[in-house]
Write a structure and sequence with these properties.
The complex is a heterotrimer. Chain A is mostly helical. Helices cover about 45% and strands about 5% of the residues of chain A. By secondary structure, chain C is mainly alpha-helical. Chain C is built from 7 helices and no strands. The mean pLDDT of chain C is about 80. The chains are: A mainly alpha, B mainly alpha, C mainly alpha. Chains in contact: A-B, A-C, B-C. The interface of B and C includes residues 108, 114, 195, 197 and 198 of B.
């Protein structure tokens, strides 16, 4: 909430409700509680050997920047321009047509002009012009150039940690200018002087040390997995096994760590375990690579690579044939578009083949990693699973395309196929809010911190609004998604904007519907909620 | 502020050429020296920048995918918006460059029937941009008849189609009207759409005004201050054959037109107008969505510090052993 | 002319003016987007403002179910409550209705008649404003409660696992 300083009586009545139009070139940012994420704690900065280590908060007046911070940033910028064509090109060719302006969920939800993707990029572009182009050096402001000052840096921090790297604007840009690239570069620059947030650095540091974002050590991972198996035994009456760190298995399974430590992710986790047991998959979990997600991606390419290395290293150590990946968003951005480049070639693995259907996943023949919905959709298509759809009848489901699987992979039909096969009631949200045009949950790219709630609620409004529409129209009461951040971010978002709509994973739906050999009659779903008798199935809860 | 500055700038440019050519008679300067200088800046600058972009590495494979990927054989993949073949990429680029596919995506939804797509609102930008760029291309091609002797047949055909309405005389070209309307729309958008106005810089107004002035002087020359076309052709052939002659008996208006074109050429490589050369190189559009099929190489890849399994096991070995997790070293 | 008929007749004009006054509190470029973009999915903020103000205006003229009024207020204020506004700014839009009505009515009625006619409606508007204050407070509470429930979900999960851990240790 905005806080106002106490005013003198005569000033009280002198409040203008119309903000000054102003020029965007003047940096103006105020860090108000609720609109920024906390700074990274010293302990984790140290563990990852990050530059300019110190205790620090964005709300502080003094950011304790190193004395040569400006040179550091400019040198960094030069390096990035030389290394990334995307960066150089995107800084050069924008014509400011404004097609992207109203595509950003943060702009739609807030009306803050600097949340228009074009202006977000201009924040960086103006500095680029000033120091790296002849016209900017000579004509300065008149060529749209501005000096790099501490205020500009703060403004960068504010707005580049108000971009979820969802890439929606890039879809509409006539030149494919990708604000995600711009934001990634800006964050790399900010990192050079030690400005990053707790919600990125802490998981990254945990992941580096223990293999997962939550810092779960191997023995605790085993315990957790054990609890899940106990729960499944109660539910299905079947004693399921789930091997850990087992050498020689055919498949290594990697999921985002939230799946085994957060709610409602947990039920998706149960779904995986049931599926793998039912088809008798020869697989293993790993404690060392117990995280598919990669918060390094929200920090720098280097950190992303450092964290990502574990997956191939573990696959090699465990001598598996190929890798299967769980439901997660930015994890799949990394796996699909970066992993092979970062840490490949994976020549010690084999081209993935489904052991049940014999399907060769040719689309993954180099990276050797398959998305679980690709794997499951293939099983379902070949009728390898027995399903009782009615167990999901208490839910009217809509599907939220998570930004990264949508716009990095084009994974649209596979999850929908799984949903249609496992549920009776499925309704799509309006066309311009799904698939490649999907709206972000507003909490991606490391912004899901609870202290950032106000910004998240703003940014999530466009998504929630579309959910509200299907709720009103079709009585939708459950939103399925394939992203761990979504599963964490959307429940509070929907609680605020569209109360009465829950969030689940696609493999939770599968787990509910899956009829297991030798299983007992189920009376509840995975959440322990009673299954609705068939005659009441059409009612909306 | 930026708007008024850019208008002043244009007026200075026009005024300068008018005074220099008309009053002071610096025809060699405006007719020969400036065009050659501008042409050189254009060619060198354009090539330099395109080479700079083209040679910049593309370390990661980052297409922005806008359609179903190729995965399972029974799922129909989108071969253009999520291309996995060279043909797909070429089609995608062709759609992008010739038809502005992405701008066209700007769909909107009827309030009462959100499940149904209808045309509206933002497609105007697509239409304006299409008309502008295509008219510009046709006009440029039409100008080829000044530079090639004899004028190629296809240019003649193009010209006769463009001048289809044989009225008034000389025939009014459709593209002249189109480009004017399109420029008016694009400029009006910058002025009256507050979002676009807020983010417009001096160069945005300037580029539009410059092209607008070129078009206006061109139209003036054709329909009002009739100039001797043979003289102009002689002049342009002279320029091309590096045997320049200053044309005689051509009004000042031609020099103004020529000077404006020279300014555009010289300005081009330093400006956002370079988007023409950049769009083909955009890594979010010109890469296939095949990053799991084929390994993409990062040319400047370097080894990074990782946390190895050995280090990991060293830290947790005791605990792992206690709960019976397999370990490498006892 | 009866003020009620007058206001009913002038519905569109007053509503338009009211919306103008509300949008004037946004940065210029945002305001235009909110005003012009008719797609409810691209412009949810503008959508709730247009819809909500209409309902409130009708409630002013005719007796309406208080729940409907609350719902309309909720739709609007829920958005404003997370938008960098001070509490006073967030509910100012209700009072701006007074201004919109006065401007319009002032052209048709004058003097004591205007005063009498308006005072009836202004009392009603004040009541709506009080109600808006409640709604605002509740929305802000909800912002904090979703935040704390997010933390609580995490904690519950941790505790659940902890309990399981204790149980398994006992065995």
């Amino acid at each position: 909430m905005a806080e106002e300083k106490l005013k003198k009586p005569e000033e009280m009545f002198d409040v203008s409700l119309t903000p000054e139009a102003g020029d965007w070139m003047e940096p103006a940012v105020s860090f108000r509680k609720g609109t920024y994420c906390y700074g990274a704690p010293l302990k984790h900065q140290r563990y990852l050997d990050l530059p300019n280590q110190r205790e620090w908060q964005p709300g502080d007046a003094d950011w304790k920047l190193p004395p040569d911070w400006k040179e550091t940033i400019l040198e960094g910028m030069e390096r990035l321009i030389k290394r990334h064509r995307s960066f150089r090109l995107f800084l050069d060719i924008c014509v400011r047509c404004g097609a992207c302006a109203d595509k950003c969920h943060f702009f739609i939800g807030s009306g803050d002009p600097k949340n228009m993707p074009v202006l977000r990029a201009e924040l960086l572009r103006s500095v680029y012009r000033r120091y790296f182009t002849p016209e900017g050096r000579i004509f300065g402001r008149y060529a749209g150039a501005r000096d790099l000052t501490e205020d500009v840096l703060k403004e960068w921090f504010y707005y580049f940690f108000q971009c979820t790297e969802c890439r929606r604007c890039s879809v509409y840009c006539p030149y494919g200018i990708d604000t995600c690239e711009i934001t990634m570069m800006a964050r790399e620059l900010l990192n050079l002087v030690g400005c990053n947030i707790q919600w990125v650095i802490e998981p990254a540091s945990n992941c580096f040390r223990t293999g997962n974002h939550l810092g779960v050590p191997p023995h605790a991972f085993q315990e957790t997995l054990g609890f899940a198996l106990d729960e499944l035994k109660d539910l299905t009456g079947i004693a399921i096994e789930a091997p850990i760190n087992r050498k020689g298995a055919e498949v290594l399974f990697v999921a985002p760590s939230a799946d085994y430590f957060a709610s409602p992710h947990w039920y998706t986790f149960l779904g995986y375990l049931m599926l793998f047991h039912e088809i008798g998959l020869d697989y293993t979990w790993s404690t060392y690579a117990s995280e598919g997600g990669n918060f390094g991606l929200f920090h720098s390419m280097e950190l992303a690579k450092r964290l990502n290395a574990k997956i191939y290293a573990e696959a090699k150590r465990l001598k598996v044939k190929w890798v299967l990946g769980g439901e997660c968003g930015h994890m799949w951005r990394t796996l699909h578009q970066y992993m092979d480049t970062f840490n490949g070639p994976a020549d010690f693995l084999e081209e993935p083949v489904s052991p049940l259907t014999g399907t060769r996943f040719e689309n993954a023949r180099s990276t050797k990693m398959v998305h679980i919905t690709e794997f499951t959709a293939d099983l379902l298509y070949h009728n390898k699973l027995k399903l009782d759809k009615s167990r999901n009848d208490q839910w009217k489901i809509t599907f939220h395309d998570s930004c990264n699987p949508a716009r990095a992979m084009g994974l649209f039909e596979e999850p929908r196929y799984v949903i249609r096969q496992t549920c009776n009631h499925f309704y799509e949200m309006p066309e311009n809010t799904i698939r490649e045009k999907t709206f972000c949950c507003g909490s991606g790219a490391g912004l899901g911190a609870d202290e950032n709630m106000e910004i998240r609620l703003r940014g999530g409004l466009p998504r929630a609004n579309a959910v509200k529409y299907v709720k009103e129209k079709h009585g939708v009461n459950m939103l399925a998604c394939i992203c761990a951040i979504d599963k964490a971010a959307l429940p509070p978002l929907l609680e605020y904007w569209v109360p009465g709509v829950g969030v689940c994973g696609v493999h939770e739906l599968l787990g509910n519907a899956l009829v297991m050999k030798g299983g007992q009659e189920r009376t509840t779903n995975l959440r322990g909620e009673p299954l609705t008798p068939p005659d009441e199935a059409t009612d909306v809860r | 502020m930026y708007l008024s500055y850019s208008i002043i700038l244009i007026l200075i440019i026009i005024g300068f050429s008018y005074v220099a050519a008309g009053l002071l008679g610096c025809r060699v300067l405006l007719g020969i020296i400036v065009p050659y200088a501008a042409g050189t800046i254009f060619v060198v600058g354009f090539v330099y920048r395109v080479i700079l972009w083209a040679r910049s590495p593309v370390p990661f494979h980052i297409p922005a995918v806008c359609g179903q990927q190729i995965s399972l054989p029974w799922i129909k993949s989108d071969k253009i918006e999520s291309p996995h073949t060279s043909w797909g990429v070429v089609s995608r680029m062709v759609l992008e460059v010739l038809l502005f596919r992405s701008l066209f995506r700007n769909d909107r939804v009827d309030i009462n029937k959100p499940e149904r797509l209808i045309y509206g609102g933002n497609r105007w930008l697509w239409l304006g941009a299409m008309i502008f760029h295509w008219s510009l291309l046709v006009i440029l091609l039409r100008h080829l008849r000044f530079f090639i002797e004899p004028a190629p047949g296809c240019i003649e055909v193009l010209q006769s189609i463009d001048g289809f309405f044989q009225w008034p005389l000389p025939a009014l070209y459709v593209t002249n009207i189109f480009i004017f309307l399109a420029l008016l729309y694009l400029f009006g958008r910058r002025l009256f759409n507050p979002q676009v106005r807020h983010l417009s810089l001096l160069s945005d107004y300037f580029a539009l005004l410059l092209i607008g002035s070129i078009a206006s002087t061109g139209i003036l020359m054709r329909h009002f201050y009739k100039v001797d076309l043979m003289q102009i052709k002689r002049f342009s052939l002279g320029i091309l054959s590096f045997d320049p002659v200053t044309p005689e008996g051509i009004g000042t208006i031609f020099y103004v037109h020529l000077f404006l074109v020279s300014v555009l050429f010289a300005y081009f490589p330093f400006s956002k107008l370079m988007h023409m050369g950049g769009v083909l190189l955009s890594p979010t559009r010109n890469l296939m969505n095949n990053s799991r099929m084929k390994r993409h190489i990062n040319p400047w890849d370097y080894p990074v510090k990782v946390h190895t399994y050995e280090e990991y096991e060293d830290e947790f070995r005791a605990a792992m052993k206690e709960v019976g997790l397999p370990i490498e070293k006892e | 002319m009866d003020i009620k008929d007058f206001l009913a007749q002038k519905r569109e004009v007053v509503l338009k003016r009211w919306l103008e006054l509300i949008l004037d509190t946004y940065p210029a470029d945002a305001a235009n987007f909110l005003r012009l973009e008719k797609d409810r999915f691209k412009n949810p903020v503008g959508h709730v403002l247009t819809q909500g103000t209409g309902i409130l205006y009708d409630a002013l003229l005719d007796e309406k179910d208080p729940d409907d009024i609350k719902k309309a207020l909720d739709d609007i204020i829920r958005v404003l409550a997370v938008q960098d506004l001070m509490p006073s700014q967030a509910i100012a839009f209700v009072f701006q209705l007074k201004q919109a009505i006065r401007e319009e009515a002032g052209q048709a009625i004058c003097g004591q008649d205007l005063f009498d006619a308006l005072s009836h409606y202004e009392v009603k508007i004040d009541t709506i404003a009080l109600c808006a204050f409640d709604v605002y407070a509740r929305c802000r509470e909800e912002v904090h409660s979703v935040r704390s429930s997010e933390i609580k979900t995490e904690r519950d999960m941790a505790i659940r696992l902890l309990n399981m851990l204790k149980r398994s240790e006992k065995q």
